[in-house]
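SAMPLE LOG
Freezer: B-3
Tube label: C17
Construct: single chain, 71 aa
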Amino acid sequence: IKEHILLEVNNVARDNFSASLYSLNGSLLKRWDLGATAGKVSLPLDLLIEKGLYILKVNAGSKTASIKVLK
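STRUCTURE (predicted):
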């Protein structure tokens, strides 16, 4: 990760979509509310987020996925 996270979103049902970035200790660092987004999505990061391992939690309707990301 540099200044953004790039996601490919398959949101056929057009559910409301959001993503949240957490530190490994569970602190919420950034949240994006993206509505009924589908396709490629670029999530900008604050420059203050340091190098390290993070968890990106993606929610669309009742579905949730967690992804490890390394900056």
